[in-house]
Specification:
Keywords: Kinase, Membrane, Transferase, Transmembrane, Transmembrane helix. By secondary structure, the chain is mainly α. It has 3 helices and no strands.
C-alpha cells in the first residue's frame, strides 16, 4: 500500500516537472516569435533607433531565470540555500521558545 503511494507521489512529481519544462519551452517560443515581430516592426518604422534591443534584454532576463529555475540551475536560491534557510528558521524558532520559558 505504501509502495503504491510512493509510486503515485513520484508520478505526480514527474508530471509536475514535465509541465514546468513544457511551460518554459512555451515561454521561450513566444519570446522568440515576439522578438522577431518586434525586430521587423522596429526596422520598418524607425531603423535609426534600435529600441527592440531593450525589449529583448528585459524579457530575455526573465526567460533565462525561468529556464534556470525549471532545470534546477539556480545559482542563487538552490536546494542547499533552501536547506540552510529552513535550518536557520527552525533554529530561530527553537531559540525563541527557549527564551520564552526562561
Amino acid at each position: 500500500m505504501e509502495q503504491d503511494f510512493n509510486e503515485e507521489k513520484r508520478y505526480q512529481q514527474a508530471q509536475k516537472k514535465v509541465k514546468e519544462i513544457r511551460g518554459f519551452y512555451q515561454h521561450l517560443t513566444v519570446f522568440i516569435l515576439v522578438t522577431i515581430l518586434l525586430i521587423v516592426i522596429n526596422l520598418m518604422t524607425s531603423p535609426e533607433y534600435l529600441w527592440f534591443i531593450w525589449c529583448i534584454v528585459g524579457w530575455g532576463v526573465g526567460v533565462i531565470f525561468h529556464g534556470l529555475k525549471v532545470f534546477g540551475i539556480s545559482p542563487f536560491f538552490n536546494k542547499e540555500w533552501e536547506e540552510r534557510k529552513i535550518k536557520e528558521f527552525i533554529d530561530k524558532e527553537k531559540e525563541s521558545k527557549k527564551q520564552t520559558w526562561k
